[in-house]
Every structure is written in structure tokens, then in C-alpha cells.
């Protein structure tokens, strides 16, 4: 598996992110969907990576800089075919390493509270993320779970 920075111009990533957005909209009410579309992910304060094996896209994840000392994990997604095969762990490890290289003090994330998000919450908990209240521009929402990890 190779994880590399992505410019968000390829068809494979556009398809995976469209599936991600559609899936989030199926699970969560519209006001609780915080996933970014392609244009939102192209923001200069977001770095986006894809995991590849040959020409197969396995998954993706992003790191949004909140300020000089903190970041937010965004758009973690594993292609359906590759779920439960360690892809998300490798992408998360890559993001954590990047955050440490940037000398961030902590990372934040928002994910869903519904049962469909239990595997994501379990992954983040395994990597030392702890539950907290809303951060940044987020508001308290029963459909969202907020987590942080000190680095």
C-alpha cells in the first residue's frame, strides 16, 4: 500500500468522495453532514492523501490545519472492497505522523453518533482519541461525536 498526497483531480477519487457524500446523506440528517465535497477539500489549509495498491484506490483521508498548533481529520473513507483490511489504520497513522511533523499539539475530529459510525469511533479510540464537546465552528448536535487526541 502506498499513501500519497492527492490533487483531487482523478476520476477514482471523485467517485469515492461522491459515494462518501451520498452515504453520509443516507445516514445523517442534512444539517449533520459535515463531509466536504471536492471543492471544499481543495482548500489551501487542507492536505489530502489517497492510499493505493497499484492502480486500485483503497481509501483516503485529509488533514485540515485549524491553527499553527492543531488540525482536524477530515474525509476518512475506505473503499467498500477494502474495508476491514487495515486501510483506515494506515491512513490515520500517516495523518498522525504528518501532524507530529507539523508540531501540532492536538488533533480534532467529528464523526457520526449513529451505529453505522461505530467502526470509525472504535478506530479513533484505539489510536488514543478521546470524546469531547464541539470544537471550532461545530455546535452541539446529537448526531455528531467530537473527539481529540493530544500529540
Could you describe the 3D structure shown?
The structure is a single chain. It contains 4 helices and 7 strands, in the order E-H-H-E-E-E-H-E-H-E-E. The chain is an alpha+beta fold and 151 residues long. The protein is globular. The mean pLDDT is 95.
Ends apart, CA distance between termini: 25 Å
Top CATH class: Alpha Beta
Spatial shape: globular
Structural Rg:
14 Å
Adjacency order of strands in the biggest sheet: 1-2-3-4-5-7-6
Mean pLDDT: 95
Beta content: 25-35%
Task: Please describe the topology of this protein.
Blueprint: E1 2-5, H1 11-27, H2 38-41, E2 46-53, E3 56-67, E4 70-78, H3 87-101, E5 106-112, H4 118-126, E6 130-132, E7 144-150
Parallel strand pairs: 4-5
Antiparallel strand pairs: 1-2, 2-3, 3-4, 5-7, 6-7
